[in-house]
Amino acid sequence: MDGTKTMIIGLTGQTGAGKSTLSGMFAERGVAVINADAVARDTMEHSKSCLMDLVLAFSTEVIHPDATLNREKLAEICFSDRKKLRRLNEVTYPYIIEAIAHKIEQARARGERMLLLDAPTLYESGLDKRCDCVVAVIADEQTRARRIIARDHMTQEAAMRRINAQNNDAFYTGRADYVIENNGDEDALRFAFMDLMEKLERRARGGEPVLQPPADPEQGAGDFEELTGGDE
Prior knowledge:
- This protein is α/β, with parallel strands linked by helices.
- It has 2 domains: 1-31 and 115-205, Rossmann fold, CATH 3.40.50.300; 43-111.
- It is built from 10 helices and 6 strands; from the N terminus they run E-H-E-H-H-H-H-E-H-E-H-H-H-E-H-E.
- The chain has helices at residues 19-28, 36-46, 48-58, 71-78, 82-110, 122-125, 141-152, 156-164, 169-173, 186-204, and strands at 7-13, 32-35, 114-118, 133-138, 178-184, 225-230.
- Helix 1 packs across helix 10 (186-204) and helix 7 (141-152) packs across helix 8 (156-164).
- One of its GO terms (molecular function) is ATP binding.
C-alpha cells in the first residue's frame, strides 16, 4: 500500500462474467465502491471537451441533435470492433481517470478501510497501478453469451460479436492476484466471494503478501489465487 489506510481492490473481468453481481456483494459488506462505468457515463455525458473529442473521433453520429451523447450509436460503432473500441478508450480514458482519481482521494479523506474499483478496462486504462490487489472474474463463452442475451436483449450473433471484441481469459488470469471462475449460480458466487473476503481481510491486516503475476502474462496464470463461483 502507499502509506494510507485505504486498501484499493481492483475488480475487472469480461462482459457477462458476473462482475457487477460481485461488486454488489462487496457493497453489501460495506466496502466503498467506485463504478468506473458509472463514472465513464457521467463523464461522457457532461464533459463538453470529452463530447467534442468523441465527435472528432467518430463523427457527429455519436451525438443527438441537442448535442447530448447518443450512447446507443456509440455502442453500435465501437463494441463489436476491437480497433474502434480501442480508439474509444484512447479518447475517453484521460477524462475518466481524472474523475476516478478524484473519487479515490475522497474515499481516502473519509478514512475508508477498503475501496473497490470496479473497472472492466482496469488494465487497459492503467488503473491497476492505483490498486493494491486485483480480482478478476471470468466465465466460459457459452455462459457469458447466455447472460448477455438475457441482460441486454440481443441476438446470439450480437452477443458473440461483443465477446469476440474483448480479451480472453489469459489476459486476466495472467495479471490478477485473485481469479473467480463464475460459471454457476449466484449462491456459488456468494460462497466464492466469502472465501475471497477472508483473504482480503487478512491482506488488509498485513497477514498476506502481495502476489506477483508472471512477468509475461502470455505465460499463463502464475501464482494467483483461484476461486470458483457462479452468477446468472
